[in-house]
Amino acid sequence: MKSLYRLLLLLLGLGGFFTPQYAVAQQTTSSQTRVLTVSPIVGESIDKQEKVTYGLFPFFSFDDFREARFLQTLTPDSSITLQATMLDGSIKQRPFTVSEFRAVRASIEERQKLLSATPGLAAGAIGTPDSLGQMYSVELRTGTSFIGRLVAQRAGEYEFQTTDVGRITVQQANIKNMQPLTSDQAGRGWEPVGNGTRLFFAPTARTLRKGEGYVQDIDIFIVGGNYGITNNISIGGLVGLFPGAGLNILAITPKVGVAVTEKFSVGAGVLFASVFGETGGIGYGLGTYGTADNNVTLGSAIYSPTAK
């Protein structure tokens, strides 16, 4: 019994002896690093939205990123490390030089000035071609086009997340055009209108989008234009440039169209005009099959003169 009692005392004594040493060791390890605030604008921890807003850390994918912070070791070399936490909980570290750290600070402050100078500018839609998190319609020099979210940018290349083909990487030199999209455009799908809403003179069943428009010149002396009131209704007109020289032409051209499928649209409209002293109207119905730049249109029209 005395032997057991002595053993318990010995174990308790050893526990009391080693426990403080363990606590001191833990405290020493944690005190060897400190968190650096790269800018008071973002604070110690930089979250996903701040990464997008200020265009930070393009080497980390937008989809996987959760937060990041800068750590500095309290050693003679005072090295700086960017520690990023991914959405799956994994930790990624990347060494930073002092000059790189300062460059991040300058980038944040410069972007903040731009945001402050442009009230209402959406975060992540700064208007630059490298806005991470922004949806884009991308047209390649080969003629291929797609819609995707810009998730990473590296030297000479962009990485997009697309719905149809997953994640793709494109060389910057192969990109012909990058068009930023609103959430509404991205949701409906988007492609360049081209000349798909009209032929040389007659219209097609394809419609302009809301807020889009164009101006055209016919035989030099006649100018026309059309504007999308909604995604299905447009209004336009024609006017002669030199009415005093006998070109007394004035016309109004409303049109309604609906996309039945991705490549087939139906539409109807009216051309109400006053031409060389005669006034009349043409009502028409149309069907158009094809893309914006390659399509065929069939239709019928009825002419109704009203006055001479």
Structure notes:
By secondary structure, the protein is of the alpha+beta class. It has three domains: 31-110, no CATH class; 135-188, Roll (SH3 type barrels), CATH 2.30.30; 213-307, no CATH class. Helix content is 20%, strand content 42%. The chain is built from four helices and 18 strands. It has helices at residues 2-30, 48-53, 98-117, 183-188, and strands at residues 33-36, 46-47, 65-73, 80-86, 91-96, 135-140, 145-154, 157-162, 167-171, 175-180, 213-218, 222-228, 233-240, 249-252, 255-259, 264-275, 278-290, 295-307. The strands form three sheets. Strands 11, 12, 13, 14, 15, 16, 17 and 18 form an eight-stranded antiparallel β-sheet that branches. Strands 1, 2, 3, 4 and 5 form a five-stranded antiparallel β-sheet that branches. A hairpin with a 6-residue loop joins β3 (65-73) and β4 (80-86).
